[in-house]
Amino acid sequence: MASQGKLVVITGPSGVGKSTIVRDVLERTGASFSVSATTRAPRAGEVDGTHYRFLDEAAFETLRREGRMLEWAQVFGHRYGTPAEPVRKALGEGKTVILEIDVQGGLQVHAQCPDGTFILIVPPSEAALAQRLAGRGTDSPEVVARRLAKAKDELIAASESGVYKHVVVNDDLEKAIARVVDIINKQE
Ligand code: 5GP
User: CA 17, CA 173: separation in Å to the nearest integer?
Assistant: First the structure.
């Protein structure tokens, strides 16, 4: 993909604090956020077109089949994907574009855009992640266990891939945000 702007993929397991970090990083860098398409239902407070494009299965499948997704993945029973056109447009305008996606999606992006910046956010420990997932209080113990198992698989896949050159530990939130901003600004 020819581009003047910078493509940044931020990934990490569910519950690691990616969304909080990305929100601040967007404010501090002025980067554009790639709004993903998803087949899951909106959560309270989520706005269509801002947080996600909420699509039904048929609409998602059409986009995917027509090759209009930069990447897509099945996560916890729902499909998520990055519509390619807005990313291409923003890059063409010289903007920095941030994709907040899962590990496997990031690997698909890397296959097409190896020059991007690939950042993996990790928890300080497995216990800390387990505590965080349970502490959200929104999921049953079964769902928490499933998320934790996926987190372990994702971290192994991410490190084995060698794609995520930047690993940021979310121990201290402010430091993690500052580190990600630094990576993007220096375009390491
Ligand atoms: P949630 O449903 O909690 O918003 O997101 C669940 C997971 O899907 C998170 O790990 C999130 O990063 C990932 N995700 C969100 N959008 C995309 C996307 O467009 N592509 C991929 N591959 N994963 C995504």
Answer: 8
